[in-house]
Design brief:
Layout (H helix, E strand, L loop, with lengths): L7 E5 L4 H12 L3 E6 L2 H13 L4 E5 L5 H15 L5 E4 L14 H29 L3 E6 L12 H21 L4 E6 L28 H11 L5 H13 L4 E2 L6 H13 L8 H27 L1
Parallel strand pairs: 1-2, 1-4, 2-3, 4-5, 5-6, 6-7
Helix pairs in contact: 1-7, 3-4, 4-5
The chain binds nicotinamide-adenine-dinucleotide.
């Protein structure tokens, strides 16, 4: 059981959708909430709503792609609450759909910028502060089911989310010794405002190869109207944190497609009989390298 009382939770994208659901649920659990979002008016409204619900909530206007602003946000949290957050939710994300072959560099820079670099900036800002505080903690980063496979229409988004999933697997290994848990949330469909994501696309990255108009936005709204309630998603996330699960995927309809996708990968690996000697030699070489590296690291620590 994680004791949330008095813990500070920093939630990016907290003005809407999944992030606002997390703010609601973790405030109820006893956390002090910081929501950070690029949309100032929505942020103020969300913070006021949280306070009206009885939460201790603070809003920070932040573009997660802005490293200097992120560092200032880290300082602001410490000033307001007297400590860095124990809980970090990298939830902000954006999407836009179109044919991969028509993509522009701006499409790549915006989608990878927010969905991947935004997460990196969150980790670079807060992980050292969490380690220095020495109180452990928990980090949940929102990727997507899209991160498990390619997509002809959401290709760049999916690639960025794939990188996020992989990076969180690494952070989980790296941070266990500091008692900082790491999970990666992979939603399918959330009842959120993501259909409007293109409205926060910055003008300097505005050259897109895709069709983006009101009709497209309305068609996306129709899908997301059937998405999982963000508060329910946040409750499932909290349960998975209690169980210290790496992956959080509260979408039963995804089990079979995911199984088929990974079966295709596993089935592509040659069976051991195809090259037993080579496999043995490569495995042994790798194990020896790991041992040598560990010895090297511990001797350089002593120097
Ligand atoms: N909606 C879905 O069906 C779905 C599916 C899979 C994954 N996701 C992921 O869930 C997360 C939350 O999205 P949501 O569906 O709740 O959408 P949402 O649009 O309701 O919320 C996302 C929030 O992020 C904010 N944001 C966008 N760019 C930002 C930036 N550069 N800096 C700071 N804040 C920024 C937006 O203003 C918004 O308030 C995202 O990472 C998204 O990719 C959503």
């Amino acid at each position: 059981m994680i004791d949330y009382t008095g813990k500070v939770a920093f939630i990016t994208g907290g003005a809407s959708g999944a992030g606002f659901g997390q703010a609601t649920v973790f405030a109820e659990a006893g956390c002090k909430i910081v929501i950070a979002d690029i949309r100032r008016a929505a942020l103020d409204e969300a913070a006021a709503k949280l306070r009206a619900q009885g939460a201790e909530a603070h809003g920070i206007h932040l573009d997660v792609t802005d490293r200097a602003a992120y560092a200032r946000a880290g300082d602001e949290v410490e000033k307001v609450f007297g400590k860095p957050p124990e809980l970090l939710f990298n939830t902000a994300g954006v999407n836009t759909f179109g044919p991969l072959e028509k993509s522009t560099y701006d499409d790549f820079d915006w989608l990878v910028g927010v969905n991947f670099w935004g997460v990196v900036n969150g980790m670079m800002t807060f992980v050292p502060r969490m380690i220095a505080a020495g109180r452990g903690g928990y980090i949940v980063t929102t990727a997507s089911m899209g991160g498990f496979s390619g997509s002809a229409a959401a290709s760049i988004y999916s690639a960025a989310k794939a990188a996020v999933i992989n990076l969180m697997e690494s952070y989980r290994l790296a941070l266990a010794r500091y008692d900082i848990g790491v999970s990666v949330l992979c939603p399918a469909n959330i009842r959120s405002n993501i259909a409007e994501a293109t409205k926060v696309r910055p003008a300097h990255l505005g050259n897109t190869g895709y069709v983006v108009n009101d009709e497209v936005i309305q068609s996306l709204h129709r899908i997301h109207a059937h998405g999982l309630d963000p508060v329910v998603l946040a409750r499932r996330t909290k349960e998975a944190m209690e169980a210290n699960q790496l992956y959080i995927i509260p979408y039963p309809e995804q089990k079979e497609p995911l199984a088929q996708h990974f079966k295709q990968i596993v089935d592509s690996v040659l069976p051991m009989e195809a090259d037993p000697e080579g496999a043995r030699a490569r495995t042994e070489a790798l194990q020896n390298w790991i041992k040598d590296r560990q010895a090297l690291m511990s001797s350089s620590k002593r120097d």
